[in-house]
């Protein structure tokens, strides 16, 4: 039967046999043959080194081919790259990635299905049909998860889905994210937290004061029979980023914002971003957010009470909860999410540069929704690893049985920073100890 092993495995096997043969000869020779043995051993070693050098060179070439194929695949999966890619080039990339699948040990069928769906999405974008593009991506999401290594690391949606917020209504999970291929505010849904389907654009129209395509970090609060969407938008004519609210009668929207201006903004502090609602044990709603810092002021996380409708702030001033004072934070704290569990308040947040692998998730312990807050640990609780890089934008939610989960975005290792995409991850959360633990898996 023919040897079907890859050439480099056969070559390494030959080298191993060569080494064994040399060892056997050395064991059998006598002291009288010492000089001859040394000469033969040196010759064999030199030959082996030459063969090993050839093998290393070919393995390096294979590794580079793997890297190029992975970069092509990640570029295609990047939602930011969608708007820049020429969709006619998808066939060429598909062929190259399929060839590279041999080296990566991938399921070629899954790879073809994934990239075929991406090609279809690119064609829809070229035809200005982003809604259908989103559906095309959802249709191949399971295949693309397989290409990315499955969901053992918590990967839930292998497409651009930054700053996720998850809300469970009935038996359905709704996830919202920063604008991308789906529109101003992306929304996807799931019944099991693992398989997600695109719903569309939760906020199809912006108020006249907001700049198009610059809407970020959404979060949703259910108030009675209505749903309030908080989001970040930039004022027109280059103004600061501020916070606004839109209302809908159902969690999937469409959310409507008829405001004449943002309801939360701190222009003297550089603007306000990353809104996140919180409801205290007594039913009082609050909003936490970040000011971006200006004029020597640090980035700061704030909290202030909301009115009963959830569309306005109570009082004239907010309370600061957190400023960056840890080395790992790199002078920046943002993306807050306040959680009450078993009588304890935890403020989850992100620190460092969002566009880098240094981005990470930290946590503080607070005495209440207005603080004060102290860090139970000087280190982040979620950082870059083998499976993903620069995790952040975390939000906590519960399942139907009351179990805790945390959603966050992250880059793929080797594809960090704009215009690469930040995939959606969902992992179990354990708050039993003094420091919260994000469990592996999904």
Features:
442 residues, alpha+beta, Tachylectin-2, Chain A, 5-stranded antiparallel β-sheet, disordered N terminus
Describe how the helices and strands are arranged:
Elements: H1 7-28, H2 34-77, H3 79-82, H4 90-104, H5 108-126, H6 130-139, H7 141-147, E1 155-157, E2 165-169, E3 172-177, E4 186-190, E5 197-201, E6 210-223, E7 226-235, E8 241-248, E9 272-279, E10 285-291, E11 300-305, E12 319-322, E13 333-341, E14 344-351, E15 360-366, E16 373-374, E17 389-398, E18 404-411, E19 423-430, E20 437-438
Antiparallel strand pairs: 1-19, 2-3, 3-4, 4-5, 6-7, 7-8, 9-10, 10-11, 11-12, 13-14, 14-15, 15-16, 17-18, 18-19, 19-20
Q: What's the name of the CATH homologous superfamily of the largest domain?
A: Glycosyl hydrolase domain, family 43
> What is the overall pLDDT average?
79
Radius of gyration: 27 Å
Q: In sequence order, what are the helices and strands, one letter per element?
A: HHHHHHHEEEEEEEEEEEEEEEEEEEE
What quaternary form is this?
single chain
Q: At the first level of CATH, what is the class of the largest domain?
A: Mainly Beta
Please state the overall shape, judged from the principal axes of the Cα atoms: globular
Structural class: alpha+beta
CATH architecture annotation name of the largest domain: 5 Propeller
Largest sheet: 5 strands, antiparallel
Query: What is the CATH topology of the largest domain?
Result: Tachylectin-2, Chain A
């Amino acid at each position: 039967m023919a040897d079907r092993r890859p050439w480099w495995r056969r070559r390494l096997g030959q080298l191993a046999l060569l080494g064994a043969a040399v060892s056997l000869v050395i064991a059998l020779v006598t002291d009288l043959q010492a000089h001859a043995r040394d000469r033969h051993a040196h010759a064999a070693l030199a030959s082996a080194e030459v063969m090993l050098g050839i093998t290393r060179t070919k393995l390096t070439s294979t590794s580079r081919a793997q890297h190029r194929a992975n970069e092509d695949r990640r570029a295609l999966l990047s939602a930011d790259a969608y708007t820049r890619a020429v969709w006619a080039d998808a066939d060429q990339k598909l062929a190259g990635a399929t060839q590279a699948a041999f080296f990566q040990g991938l399921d070629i069928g899954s790879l073809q299905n994934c990239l075929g769906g991406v090609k279809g999405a690119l064609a829809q974008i070229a035809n200005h049909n982003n809604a259908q593009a989103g559906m095309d991506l959802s249709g191949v999401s399971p295949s693309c998860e397989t290409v990315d290594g499955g969901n053992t690391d918590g990967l839930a949606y292998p497409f651009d889905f930054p700053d996720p917020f998850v809300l469970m209504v009935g038996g359905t999970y709704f996830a919202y994210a920063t604008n991308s291929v789906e529109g101003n505010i992306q929304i996807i849904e799931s019944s099991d937290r693992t398989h997600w389907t695109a719903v569309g654009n939760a906020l199809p129209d912006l108020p006249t004061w907001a700049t198009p395509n610059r809407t970020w970090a959404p979060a949703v609060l259910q108030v009675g029979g209505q749903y309030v969407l908080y989001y970040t938008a930039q004022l027109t004519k280059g103004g600061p980023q501020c916070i606004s609210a839109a209302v809908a009668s159902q969690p999937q929207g469409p959310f409507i914002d008829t405001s004449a201006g943002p309801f939360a903004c701190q222009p003297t502090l550089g603007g306000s971003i990353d809104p996140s609602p919180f409801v205290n044990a007594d039913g009082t709603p609050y909003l936490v957010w970040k000011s971006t810092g200006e004029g020597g002021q640090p980035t700061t996380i704030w909290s202030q009470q909301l009115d009963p409708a959830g569309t306005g702030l109570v009082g004239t001033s907010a309370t600061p909860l957190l400023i960056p004072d840890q080395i790992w934070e790199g002078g920046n704290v943002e993306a807050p999410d306040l959680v009450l569990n078993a009588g304890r308040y935890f403020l989850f947040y992100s620190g460092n540069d969002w566009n880098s692998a240094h981005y990470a998730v930290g946590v503080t312990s607070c005495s209440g929704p207005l603080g004060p807050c102290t860090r139970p640990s000087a280190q982040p609780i979620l950082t870059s690893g083998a499976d993903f890089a620069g995790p952040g934008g975390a939000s906590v939610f519960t399942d139907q049985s009351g179990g805790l989960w945390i959603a966050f975005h992250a880059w793929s290792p080797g594809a960090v920073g704009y215009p690469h995409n930040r995939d959606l991850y969902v992992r179990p959360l354990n708050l039993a100890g003094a420091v919260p633990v994000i469990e592996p898996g999904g």
